[in-house]
Every structure is written in structure tokens, then in C-alpha cells.
Design goal:
The structure is a single chain. The chain is an alpha/beta fold. Helix content is about 35%, strand content about 30%. The chain has a six-stranded mixed sheet, with helices on both faces. Strands 2-1-4-5 form a four-stranded antiparallel sheet. A four-stranded antiparallel sheet has the order 12-13-11-14, with helices on one face. β9 (about 205-210) and β10 (about 215-220) form a beta hairpin. The structure holds adenosine-5'-triphosphate (ATP) and magnesium ion. Adenosine-5'-triphosphate binds next to β2 and α1.
């Protein structure tokens, strides 16, 4: 069933209603084996609800979830044996010592006893827990509790990790450490993680899925969501070929007609005889080839061209506020 070509995670028309609240509308996406995918969305978008359905802890109102080809609704235990899950608020036992708790988690997961303690210590080392093994979980700081939550998700050495805000509530140093750990884990595991920290996704993820109001609004690489996207700007500087004239209004009109250009504004030139323009990209076609060709066929020399992508934050805001704004318009 679970060959390498199969999606590690698949949400197929997945949705959840709580009474009249539509927490997740209908969401479909796949995560391939080995991918590290960021799952983004504003508060209340439905990230945790989706993750709970994927991990078999919540029954969907519609659609299905698959883990390594196993239908989670049909066979939740087999699906769960393939994944480690860090829930939004990890249920930890405050009066248990770290290592005892992990032994307990390993029992629940049916991990064989032989050689188990060594394996658990290996996980603790990876999660930076060696110096707190004998402490009660209740005495640990938020960051260390989060590490225990991660370690708990790893006890059965799953191929897939589903992590709901693994760095929430951590200080900047701990965020960097946990991010490094996730990167490290991503080398041999498939990871789906939700977070509100956008630089974190850019630093760790191969792909980004964004949901808003329970609907999928983006599923693309970090590069595509920032570089090639609507709103990117291209700054150009042109000068007239010897003997030709250069008239700003005419050049602007020419540039506005290039496919993939949404708007043109004056921008800084480079000195006498040159004109500068800032072009706003529409996001559907890369306008750079058109800019070059337009310059050549209109007796202009393109002395500079620079593209500036938008930040992931810009893209996130555009995609996740768009719907409400469109509804108001
Ligand atoms: N048990 C529940 N009963 C009723 N409504 C719920 C329940 N759990 C979640 N919701 C609602 O479902 C919607 C999605 O919530 P969810 O927790 O999945 O969002 P989220 O994207 O994880 O948000 P956050 O970024 O704040 O963690 C919200 O409107 C929330 O109020
Ligand atoms: Mg959540």
C-alpha cells in the first residue's frame, strides 16, 4: 500500500462543522514522502482542526484523510502508527519524569521493550533533553515542555511528523534551536507543520499551504509565493539609442502593454538621458522577456533591470485578507 510514489499525507475534500460553525470548509492537498510542508493561516483558519482530522483524532464532517495510502477513517490505528503528532496543546503529565513519560508514550505506541531505553535516550539527545531527564515535566519551562512534546511524537520512529505550532510560546533562542531540530528531522522524515512565524517556514519548508476561513488559498513553493507572484516589482532604467528620442509618456504606454505588467510608475533614473520605471507584475507571466523585446524594437537600450519579490508576509496578508475584502466590495 505505501510505496514511495504514494502521497504520505492526503486530504481529500476534508471538512468539519461544529454545529453551525464551518471550521474547515473543504480542503484538498497532498504531501509527498520526504517533503517538509508549512501549513499557514490566520487564527481560526482551521489548521488545528485539519491536523486533528489528518491524525485521526477528529472525525471529519466530509471528505477523507489518508496517511501513506491508509484511509484514516477506516483504519485509524494503522494510520497513527505511521505518524508522530504534536498537538496544539500537548497533553503532558506534569508529575511524571521526562524519561518515564517517554517510556509511557512508547508503551502506548507499542514500541518493543528490547533496546528501547537506548533509543529513547537517543531521541532525548536529539531533542536536547538529556539534562532534564530526571525532572518532573511540571517543573519544565515552556520550551522544554515543547521539546518533550516533540520527543513524544518521535518515540515510535514514525516516517511522518504532524506538528501543530511546534515553536509557539518559545523565546527567540529556543525558536532557533527547535527550528534547527525540525530541519534536522526533515532530512529523513516527512513533516507537516503549522506556524505563525513566517521566516520559519521560509527557512525550513519545501512547500507552503495556506488556508483562510477553512479554504485552501495557496499551495506552492516559498519562492513562487514571493518571487513570481503578483505584486513583485521590476525596476528598469532605459536610455535612447543614439539618434532616437526618449519620451517618458510614450515609454510608459509601451511598458503598460507588456503581458504580465499590471502597472507602471516613474522611478529613479541613472543620470541624464536615462529614464527609470517601476513595473508592478501581475503574477501570471514573467514580463521580463517582454520588457527586453519592447526596448529593442523601440530604439531603447535597457541599461538596468532588477526584480524585487514580495515578502511572504505580503503574500500571506493578500491571500488571507482577500476574501473578506472581496466580500465587502
Ligand atoms: N471544539 C470546537 N467547537 C467549536 N468550534 C471549534 C472547535 N474547535 C475549533 N473550532 C472553531 O473552528 C475554527 C477553526 O479552528 P482551528 O483551531 O482549527 O483554527 P487554527 O487555524 O488552528 O487557529 P490558531 O491559529 O488560532 O491555532 C474556529 O472558528 C474555531 O473557533
Ligand atoms: Mg491552531
Amino acid at each position: 500500500m505505501s510505496d514511495a510514489s504514494q502521497a504520505m499525507v492526503e486530504a481529500r475534500g476534508l471538512g468539519k462543522d461544529y454545529g453551525t460553525t464551518r471550521a474547515v470548509d473543504t480542503v484538498s492537498f497532498k504531501v509527498a514522502r520526504g517533503e517538509v510542508v508549512g501549513f499557514l493561516g490566520p487564527n481560526g483558519a482551521g489548521k488545528s482542526t485539519t491536523m486533528k482530522m489528518l491524525t485521526g483524532y477528529l472525525k471529519p464532517s466530509r471528505g477523507s484523510a489518508f496517511i501513506g495510502g491508509i484511509d484514516v477513517g477506516d483504519d485509524p490505528l494503522t494510520a497513527q502508527s505511521k505518524l508522530g503528532y504534536l498537538p496544539e496543546s500537548a497533553p503532558l503529565y506534569d508529575d511524571m519524569m521526562v524519561l518515564d513519560f517517554l517510556e509511557f508514550a512508547a508503551d502506548l505506541r507499542g514500541v518493543a521493550k528490547a533496546g528501547r531505553r537506548e533509543k529513547l535516550k537517543g531521541i532525548c539527545e536529539r531533542c536536547g533533553l538529556l539534562n532534564v531527564l530526571g525532572k518532573d515535566i511540571g517543573q519544565l519551562s515552556k520550551g522544554y515542555r515543547q521539546r518533550v512534546g516533540l520527543a513524544q511524537a518521535l518515540v515510535h520512529d514514525p516516517d511522518l511528523l504532524i506538528l501543530d505550532e511546534p515553536t509557539s510560546g518559545l523565546d527567540p533562542n529556543q525558536i532557533v534551536e527547535i527550528r534547527q531540530l525540525i530541519k534536522d528531522l526533515g532530512r529523513d522524515k516527512t513533516i507537516l507543520l503549522s506556524t505563525h512565524i513566517l521566516p520559519e517556514v521560509q527557512a525550513t519548508c519545501d512547500r507552503i499551504i495556506i488556508i483562510a476561513d477553512g479554504k485552501l488559498v495557496a499551495d506552492d513553493t516559498p519562492e513562487a509565493l514571493t518571487e513570481g507572484t503578483a505584486g513583485a516589482t521590476i525596476q528598469i532604467v532605459v536610455k535612447a539609442k543614439a539618434g532616437a528620442a526618449l519620451e517618458a509618456a510614450r515609454v510608459m504606454a509601451l511598458l503598460s502593454n507588456i503581458p504580465g505588467v499590471r502597472g507602471v510608475a516613474n522611478a529613479e533614473a541613472e543620470g541624464p538621458g536615462t529614464l527609470g520605471f517601476a513595473l508592478r507584475a501581475a503574477g501570471d507571466v514573467d514580463p521580463r522577456e517582454g520588457i527586453f523585446n519592447t526596448a529593442v524594437s523601440n530604439d531603447m537600450v535597457l541599461v538596468g533591470m532588477q526584480r524585487r519579490g514580495v515578502s511572504l508576509e505580503d503574500t500571506f496578508r493578500r491571500l488571507t485578507r482577500g476574501e473578506k475584502e472581496a466580500a465587502r466590495a
